[in-house]
Amino acid sequence: MALYMFNLHIPVGFGGLSIVAYILHQPVLDPQTQALSLLVIDVLELLANLFLLNSTVRPEKRLVDIFEFNLVERNWLLASALGFGILILIVFLTSIIIDVLYGVKDVNNPVLKEMLLRSDISKVACIIVYCIITPILEEVVYRGFMLASLVSTMDWKQAVVISAAVFSAAHFSGENFLQLFVIGCILGCSYCGTGNLCSSIVIHSLYNAFTLLVTFLS
């Protein structure tokens, strides 16, 4: 996990756009270029992450084992629907607390809104990044790999809390830490409850889609 965080996620996730701007000789990327750059960066990070995990996984296991697809016994679709509903409710409540502490914002992410409004191309790029690539990437790392590793050494509730805290801290957003922590806990509980990573991926994807819609309409 430390190898991923310091050698891959932080440099690529937080410095990728700066590298693109340097290559294109543009001090500030326009919203469409930024959206397309995010798409390329996230795809590359996902591929690199899967390669890294596949290289470090124990010989007796396969990387695909973390998905444990078992629709009949696990009923992960029902868990996904329930988890998403609970997530929206709790995030709404925590949003009230955050508004009290930090004040109400007209737009939670103005940069994202600019990308969504720029063009159809940037809109599609944002949807792919936030609703497909990012959920798969983060769930594989924080739930499929990190949480699963922690569960093997401690109580699953403690493992969920620790993985959620790391997940939240990795976003480097102080004012959103509480919400991200809550999201991480719900995603972790979903994964532990179903034994299926598809459940947390679906919840994560639906939540990001909801966030995109709210940002677009705000």
From TrEMBL:
Keyword terms of this UniProt record: Hydrolase, Membrane, Protease, Transmembrane, Transmembrane helix
GO terms classed as biological process: CAAX-box protein maturation; proteolysis
- Where's the CAAX prenyl protease 2/Lysostaphin resistance protein A-like domain? 123-210
Where are the bilayer-spanning segments? 6-24, 36-57, 77-104, 180-207
Domain of life of the native organism: Eukaryota
Question: Which is an annotated GO molecular function term of this record?
Answer: endopeptidase activity
PANTHER family per UniProt:
CAAX AMINO TERMINAL PROTEASE (PTHR43592), CAAX AMINO TERMINAL PROTEASE FAMILY PROTEIN (PTHR43592:SF4)
Name of the protein described by the UniProt record: CAAX amino terminal protease family protein, putative isoform 2
Ranked from the top, the taxonomy reads: Eukaryota, Viridiplantae, Streptophyta, Embryophyta, Tracheophyta
